């Protein structure tokens, strides 16, 4: 028996609500120093989360939360017994799969797709077994057992063991104060995270079991839980260590201050894109934190979902937009895990943040390169071969490594000429090109490694990585 679904009233096709075209991927083209291309979107969306299945008589209801990327377009659902895809439009976040055989086992795979056709990681449901309804059944299922919970930052995580009744379908959760609308969790999941709660308020939860005939148990009541804010702002003046999915990294504190950005002297000399440094100007920055090292392969993979890799080798061959997406996902993880308070955010550094940190911030000794007037003391160039492990050269005045050489680093700003007007916490978000900073192992031209050199670029290559900031 094939899996089937609700038919569209407009098209008659077996798709849920709408049929979506999948856009062709743009072909990547390498970019030379003098060539400019529009950067193709190759960043896949995040996977769906909070996937929940509720079995019924010859049917299964799927519920989930869509990815948060602005270019996310739709979810593609595949049934284990039928390769025909069901397309569900962004924002609907539910699908009723009908025409199933009671007693047979089904699994469903949900894959997120963006407007460029990039596909995210598939999420697979646990086995689902539809159960026939007995019209004479008026007996509710047994209660859940081993109910426990844990309060967090604005949330409570509940765990339990489902009853063994063959016709058991779901758990219905309400809570007080404020949670009168039931939250339904399908058979087999046995956990729920209730978010959006008020820190400092005491909550109690009632869990009732429901079978496919709609019979509802009396319910059991949980202990009392009080959510509390767990994240605290790092102390100003101190660096801070974080661990994301088992990968540690360090953020260096950069005290705010005023500095001269750019270099008219460097801009007047010959060299590829050297003139981009023209128009020295005063910039005042608020305090922030910046990565002690470039983002490593291990940290990149821990955030982007694949896992593994070296935690000493910088990630490379990434686009500027991939860097922004990495920082966004890192930020989501850090907030969800209560590592940073709601009013702080990870991102890739602005160009001003990058240059101020490279110069040593308020501890600057006026070096040409980041931490020295001798390039070989702080930076890897083409004379040294390819990419090297981080923290092998001496750090700069703030204890930051590899801001001259090793891999180029994307910054957040779009490329534009400087103006001479003083600025406070600047960030340019308009333009068609991006900016890479710090020089790389590919070059040996010393001017490329200075703390003021800025290279306008659109595509990517194997010499470009990134760094993160926190504010």
Structure write-up:
This protein is mostly beta strands and 471 residues long. It has five helices and 27 strands. The chain has helices at residues 264-267, 297-304, 320-336, 351-358, 375-378, and strands spanning 4-5, 49-55, 60-65, 72-79, 82-89, 94-98, 108-114, 123-124, 145-151, 155-161, 168-176, 179-186, 191-195, 203-211, 220-225, 240-244, 247-254, 257-261, 281-285, 288-291, 346-347, 408-414, 423-424, 434-437, 454-457, 464-465, 469-470. Strands 16-17-20-27-21 form a five-stranded antiparallel β-sheet. Strands 1-6-3-2 form a four-stranded antiparallel β-sheet, with no helix packed on it. A hairpin with a 4-residue loop joins strand 2 and strand 3 (60-65). The longest helix has 17 residues, at 320-336. The protein starts with a strand and ends with a strand.
Brief description of this entry?
The protein has 471 residues and is mainly β. It is built from five helices and 27 strands. The protein has helices spanning 264-267, 297-304, 320-336, 351-358, 375-378; strands at 4-5, 49-55, 60-65, 72-79, 82-89, 94-98, 108-114, 123-124, 145-151, 155-161, 168-176, 179-186, 191-195, 203-211, 220-225, 240-244, 247-254, 257-261, 281-285, 288-291, 346-347, 408-414, 423-424, 434-437, 454-457, 464-465, 469-470.
């Amino acid at each position: 028996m094939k899996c089937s679904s609700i038919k569209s009233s407009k098209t008659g096709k077996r798709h849920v609500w709408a049929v979506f075209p999948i856009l062709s991927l743009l072909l990547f083209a390498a970019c030379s120093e003098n060539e400019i291309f529009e950067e193709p979107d190759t960043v896949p969306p995040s996977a769906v989360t909070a996937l929940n299945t509720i079995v019924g008589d010859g049917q299964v209801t799927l519920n989930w939360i869509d990815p948060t990327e602005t270019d996310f377009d739709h979810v593609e659902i595949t049934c284990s017994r039928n390769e025909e895809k069901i397309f569900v439009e962004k924002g609907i976040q539910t699908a009723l799969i009908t025409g199933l055989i009671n007693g047979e086992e089904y699994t469903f795979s949900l894959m997120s797709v963006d407007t460029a056709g990039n596909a995210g990681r598939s999420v697979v449901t646990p086995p689902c077994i539809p159960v026939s309804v007995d019209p004479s059944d008026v007996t509710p299922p047994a209660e859940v057992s081993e109910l426990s919970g844990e309060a967090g930052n604005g949330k409570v995580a509940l765990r339990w063991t489902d009853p063994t009744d063959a016709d058991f379908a779901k758990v219905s959760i309400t809570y007080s104060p404020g949670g009168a609308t039931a939250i339904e969790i399908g058979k087999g999941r046995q956990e729920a995270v209730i978010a959006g709660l008020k820190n400092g308020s005491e909550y109690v939860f009632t869990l009732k079991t429901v079978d496919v005939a709609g019979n509802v148990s009396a319910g059991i009541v949980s202990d009392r839980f009080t959510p509390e804010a767990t994240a605290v702002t790092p102390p100003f003046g101190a660096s801070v260590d974080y661990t994301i999915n088992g990968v540690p990294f360090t953020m260096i504190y950069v005290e705010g201050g005023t500095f001269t950005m750019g270099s008219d002297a460097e801009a007047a000399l010959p060299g590829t894109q050297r003139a981009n440094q023209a128009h020295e100007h005063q910039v005042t920055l608020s305090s922030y934190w910046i990565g002690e090292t470039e983002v490593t392969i291990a940290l990149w993979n821990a955030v982007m979902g694949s896992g593994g890799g070296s935690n000493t080798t910088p990630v490379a061959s990434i686009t500027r937009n991939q860097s922004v997406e990495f920082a966004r996902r890192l930020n989501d993880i850090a907030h969800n895990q209560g590592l940073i308070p709601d009013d702080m955010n990870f991102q890739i550094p602005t160009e001003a943040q990058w240059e101020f940190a490279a110069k040593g911030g308020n501890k600057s000794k006026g070096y040409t390169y980041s931490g020295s007037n001798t390039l070989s003391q702080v930076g890897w160039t083409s004379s040294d071969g390819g990419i090297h492990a981080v923290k092998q050269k001496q750090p700069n005045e703030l204890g930051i490594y590899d801001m001259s050489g090793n891999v180029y680093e994307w910054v957040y700003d779009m490329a534009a000429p400087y103006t001479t007007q003083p600025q406070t916490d600047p960030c340019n978000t308009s333009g068609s090109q991006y900016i890479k900073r710090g020089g790389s192992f590919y070059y040996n031209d010393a001017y490329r490694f200075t703390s003021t050199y800025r290279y306008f670029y659109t595509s990517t290559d194997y010499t470009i990585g990134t760094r993160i900031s926190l504010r």
